[in-house]
Amino acid sequence: MTTKIYGHRGSKGNYPENTMLGFKKAIETGVSGIEIDIHMTKDEELVVFHDFTLERTSTGLGFIKDHTLEEIQCLSVGAMFKDFEKYEKNWDDEHIPTLSEVLELFKKHDLEVNIELKTYMFTYPGIEEKMFKVIKESEYNPKKVIYSSFHIPTILRMKEINPSAKFALLTMQDFPRLDDYFDVLGLESFHPGKDQVLNNLDFWKPLANRIRVWTVNDPADMQTFIDMGVKAIITDYPEVAVKL
What distance in Å separates the CA atoms of residue 122 and residue 68, rounded to the nearest whole number? Predict the structure, then answer.
């Protein structure tokens, strides 16, 4: 099996994360898929953004859940990356995209998309139903979508709503009896952290074709996982991984 390359939040190492610009740059490298994160706004719209709060990567303040979509889309998510080598003034025009916007772009390129639901701090009541509704309305190929979360109740809720969807559990620790997790949670895959796998290769090697590993930025580590035959590498530098 050929290891697939996923851009982490787009092309996070060189461009503003979770932006349309970053996604387009990742696509240009030839990735098979892109990993994104979603939150829900005060008016129950789904936006693509990593943190629960706005400060680190946007010109806004406070929690996403406390702002409407209109308020959030007035913010810049490019202006915070002026220290990046590739920075250009037009980055300042990048806004926080909706899930619908992102899916429209990805659909044109037949990409796999890994949607991480950021639900381990806030429940975001109804986010699972809302997300599946947006996916259905986008007419995105369901076989190309992987839904992941660190939060097991979120996976159980998703499974109840859409049992045929592909689910992945994000982890930072090794679980005993992984087969039980696959069976009971109906998982398609595990998404372990890079160091977690490297520190226990004997544990993870038998599961290589059932894991996507994050966030793999060192070329030597990329090669290790490619040789291991993992399902996918999630990286901030997709242009490096694709070449390997």
Answer: 16
The single-letter code of the amino acid at 50 is: H
Residue owning tokens 């008016």: 43
Exactly one of 39, 50, 67, 191 is catalytic; name it: 50
Catalytic pick from 8, 39, 67, 191? 8
For residue 47, the surrounding DSSP H or E stretch is strand 46-48
Provide the sign of the torsion angle of the four alpha carbons 12, 15, 17, 23, taken in this order.
negative
* Catalytic-residue membership of 50: yes
pLDDT at 1 over 80: no
The residue to which tokens 């996403």 are assigned: 64
In which band, very low, low, confident or very high, does the pLDDT at 130 lie, cut at 50, 70 and 90?
A: very high
79: closest CA among 58, 54, 60?
58
Length of the chain: 244
* 8 among known catalytic residues: yes
The 10s digit of each residue's pLDDT in 14-73 is 999 999 999 999 999 999 999 999 999 999 999 999 999 999 999 999 999 999 999 999
d(CA 235, CA 3): 13
- Enumerate domains of the chain plus CATH numbers: 4-52+97-243 (3.20.20.190)
> What is the Cα–Cα distance from 189 to 180, expressed in whole angstroms?
12
Cα–Cα dist 60/79, whole Å: 11
pTM of the predicted protein model:
0.97
